[in-house]
Amino acid sequence: MANTMKMAILIATVALCMSSLLSLVYAGANINGYITGKVVCDPCINGGKPIKSAQMMVICFDKKTNDGTYARKGITNDVGVYKIAMKPGIEADYCEVRLHKNSPWKACKGIIPGKNVTTVNFNNKPVGLSNNKPVYAAADVIGYKRRRSLCN
């Protein structure tokens, strides 16, 4: 009886692992490219200082109906750069990247109207490839501001 129970648990565990693996493979097949950009502190001062672990979100809308078609979160790396996967078909939509959460830096938390969001122009050529998929650049650097910022 104990061996039967152990075997059932083993089979269930293997099935769960296989199902997770298949979903990862399937999810990878549905990635059509990436959107990349940068998040900084004080973008109005010499391009700003990169912010690690800043969170942003790509949001896409159908150009005709204005219905939401895609949303996906991302996080910046050590040099303030994010790379967010995109699904097939969003190249025909209007997409923008927005700061999603508060800045991880205590000294740089202010919101700068117009500098907390940028668009993605799929009409431009990709800036490169990642995993043999195109990488599109966001139009502008986005960021937060310090108390005494040059940004309006």
TrEMBL record:
Residues making up the signal peptide according to the UniProt record: 1-27
Protein origin, superkingdom: Eukaryota
Cited InterPro entries: Pollen_Ole_e1_allergen
UniProt keywords, alphabetically: Disulfide bond, Signal
Keyword hit for Signal: yes
Protein family membership: Belongs to the Ole e I family.
Name of the featured protein: Uncharacterized protein
Source species of the chain: Xanthoceras sorbifolium
